[in-house]
């Protein structure tokens, strides 16, 4: 990956940068001044050489480790985030606490007992109920979620339902996730309706490793599942499928301690670089500080926290603060239901009109390849010009009416806050997503630096412009 | 991989095969007749199109699953192997039992407890003792096995030793395994000498996934370890290393149920294609039927069982049996100390002079790229000629004085049985080796078919020749 880094650096330094430096004549209608453009380009050069981003995610994953929303580890992560903000010289550092119900995984044992004994690699899904005692039951096989939703009420009494399905389709956008995820989201409602003792699903993930992918189920109204719900790895699901196709009688033994443990405290960490001219106008960037508990949350989403914090710090290192305030939010409890995101939107409700742009990095740390936006149509030209400036990083301009700045931005988006997104290459993302294998070694420092470069240049330009990003809605 | 298959097929059919068919004039000194050569080439064409090899490893891994040496599952695997031999029409099918001490993994829990609580992904090593009760102790970090071997007696009382080391070097020959494996083999002796409560090592494996690699320790004389010995995954070891480098106080909680469970029965499955002219002369091929218990033993060594059985069956499908007997041995209890191999050599001791060649497939199922040999020097020309015939499969001729036909061939090699080896491309082999991730999805059916093609042609030619392979030793 040194190649990419060097190639990008070379393009920036010998091409675009010096061309601009020696060509002060810019088409008069550009919303970006030559000086702003040069600053953005210098930020990219600096970011590509900087190890700050990687050192942040290394510190978070090493010194804190896994940090489930609401856990004691997540509390340590907040303290880590606030300390980091102070050390990096952010102008304002705050921890904004909120309360939430805590779900704990407990211990799981799951094994095939017929046609023979074999351990399965599984993980409880978020929100699942415990088994009172060990469940020993035959498996009823469903080829996909549609087959399960078609069952009659009460037809699964004394059984464990297993929902298979194709492994999710891999793509750079992660488009296969949402359809594949239905069995994780709503499968439990139908298994319960059928009277099943438990539900087992094929993991929602694009890999073929022996790792289960955990993740939150959806509530049904305000009700969570009353049965254990377990995801098993893709190779384990393949194994059950092959045995089913051989007409072998399948049975399972399962004991899960996952359960709700009452109200606890979580929180968001908020770090500000105060704007020099319009300090009240906020450009919000960030990632989520919590992770699932199986891995150390490097890719999801230590990377996002690191990329956005490092980008803001590089902007703060400039001789002068940009006009607008840049706010880094390390959201708490994202994985367990965007709880930090909703808490933030509620707490800052009266001030959301001053949030002029929001975006989150929560799709890993592979190279950013695209910039999409959903801003005031009159501001679209600014985004187009920013896209040209970051193009030497290999980034193309995507749609100008693409809603969504990341999961934790949903509540802000709903309230009319303009959004952009810098899209990471996501082909491998769902190989690691929510597995024990989401660890630091999966991050390429050079690719992470490309992310920091893209964020630093882009966010600087949005923060230093006078262009109104917000449509009158 | 269809490309490879098609390319190989095309080369065989349109190139070598028809050239030979239409050119009956062969240099007179060749030890291989034109008819033999054509038969070998037809075997390759047939094998590349055949799904037999894959169907065998699919059946073994699916219908039997993991099959630890000495376990009930390994007994089922023997019955499966004998049934398969009968179904495929082998001339003679036998199960040759032997007794062995049984080591059982039991349940393991291992977690970091300082600087914070975090589950570790670990696995007991074969031969390790149980912990009487939960061990809670500080970790003493050793950067490699040499650092551990240098300790003073009694200096680790009340501590758990952790031996780090670099992840093993990846290569097609697997040359990095043996040096990396020292900590697994002999680490326990030094940890015990130091008085440590347990030994934890970085897994011997070339991957960066959250899987521990199990494997057998070495005995010290006739003594096994008296302490628990656990391998943790490479990412977990990286994690401990980073914490150690930050001078964090490391401590661990560990409870392992692994123990010796007394004498049990294992066995080898022996399948013969009886030779038509020299039935007493045996060409022995095979793989090992047992696997480690964490995965389903697809790559190690369901593949070897499948490749050699399928190759023998394709030879048996010829209109006429080759001159010599082809014997497929599915060795039992390889992983736990080559117990089946030694049992075979002992049982057949009086007849080993009739074993004219032996080889094992036990290095996965990626493409075979090389043929090495250790036969009577006067027979080396025959091997050279065979190498030319299988060259269209992408296989090169390696050394003619390379000892070793595979782990289970060691006792035969020691008694003077000539050996060859068809070397699989092994760069990825130690990513999967002895992990839970050794499952069927890791085998590419086209690459497995290339293996069957190489074995079928090679073994046919050795079985149908009159050349004496055995040196007078
Ligand atoms: Zn995330
Ligand atoms: Zn093996």
From TrEMBL, chains A, B:
GO terms for molecular function: carboxypeptidase activity; metal ion binding; metallodipeptidase activity. GO terms for biological process: proteolysis. The keyword Protease applies. The lineage of its organism: Bacteria, Pseudomonadati, Pseudomonadota, Gammaproteobacteria, Alteromonadales. It is found in: Endoplasmic reticulum; Golgi apparatus; Lysosome; Secreted. It comes from the Bacteria. Homodimer. The monomeric form is inactive while the homodimer is active. Gene3D superfamilies: 3.50.30.30, Zn peptidases. One of its GO terms (cellular component) is extracellular region. The keyword Secreted applies. Transmembrane segments: none annotated. Keywords: Carboxypeptidase, Endoplasmic reticulum, Glycoprotein, Golgi apparatus, Hydrolase, Lysosome, Metal-binding, Metalloprotease, Protease, Secreted, Signal, Zinc, Zymogen. It holds the Pfam family Peptidase_M28. Residues 1-27 form the signal peptide. This is Carboxypeptidase Q. It comes from Thalassotalea euphylliae. Residues 268-456 form the Peptidase M28 domain. Its main location: endoplasmic reticulum. InterPro entries: CPQ, Peptidase_M28.
